Amino acid sequence: MSPAGLNQPLTLALSKGRIFDETLPLLEEAGIKVLESPETSRKLILPTNNPDLRLIIVRATDVPTYVQYGAAHIGIAGKDVLYEHMEQHPGGLYQPVDLNIARCRLCVAVAEGFDYHSAVKQGSRLRIATKYTRAAREHFASKGVYVDLIKLYGSMELAPLVGLADAIVDLVSSGGTLRANKLVEVEDITPISSRLIVNQAAMKNRGAQLQPLIDAFSRASLDE
Ligand code: ATP
Ligand code: MG
């Protein structure tokens, strides 16, 4: 039996910030109110008005791990995070609903003045800094571009400015951060949104409890 046993409330894992903020309205449409805010409360386990459902607040990249091991029955994670996670840990998760929240896109960006398209045409080897090494590796492999990947955990925008990399692969929504750092987007890789993920064993053991929640998320996300 996983730590989240049968007598425990259903546990939903999500990250604070944009995913939490954009999930709240979906929960409200399902009649679920979260009783405390993760921004003001330091609690990592948040009760809801439904005694059978609680939230846990974890780092965005850790959400799939909690759900995969069954410490949370269900979770919400960006496709970016899921894609990288699945490379090391395939299986164990269902992804039943695209919630259409936390929308952005994965793209290639360079410093203003760097002629990316010529560098690609000439067959130059490029240094790419990114948190998304799987997506980046597969993107450049599909274009036949040789790259050296440098793994970073944040502030990717800095890398081309200080000579760490020729380009970055990063998430962009408005482009404001790129502009503020004199970077330009040169290639779109894929659109990103967040998905509901469900532990496969929990779906078997507690499907009767999980299915109505999944259906409620599914209905609410249609309005997004
Ligand atoms: P941390 O900020 O704690 O280092 P993080 O960057 O992974 O972690 P968030 O910034 O909250 O956490 O991002 C969570 C998810 O939201 C990402 O995995 C992605 O799917 C989505 N996201 C990231 N940046 C944006 C953005 N600019 N606009 C919309 N959605 C985004
Ligand atoms: Mg972030």
TrEMBL record:
- Location of this chain's protein in the cell: Cytoplasm
This one is known as ATP phosphoribosyltransferase
**Reactions catalysed, as given in the entry:** 1-(5-phospho-beta-D-ribosyl)-ATP + diphosphate = 5-phospho-alpha-D-ribose 1-diphosphate + ATP
Molecular function terms from GO: ATP phosphoribosyltransferase activity
Q: What is its EC number?
A: 2.4.2.17
Q: What does this protein do?
A: Catalyzes the condensation of ATP and 5-phosphoribose 1-diphosphate to form N'-(5'-phosphoribosyl)-ATP (PR-ATP). Has a crucial role in the pathway because the rate of histidine biosynthesis seems to be controlled primarily by regulation of HisG enzymatic activity.
State the domain notes: Lacks the C-terminal regulatory region which is replaced by HisZ.
Q: Which organism is it from?
A: Alcaligenes ammonioxydans
Record-linked PROSITE patterns: ATP_P_PHORIBOSYLTR (PS01316)
Please spell out the taxonomic lineage of the organism that makes this protein: Bacteria, Pseudomonadati, Pseudomonadota, Betaproteobacteria, Burkholderiales
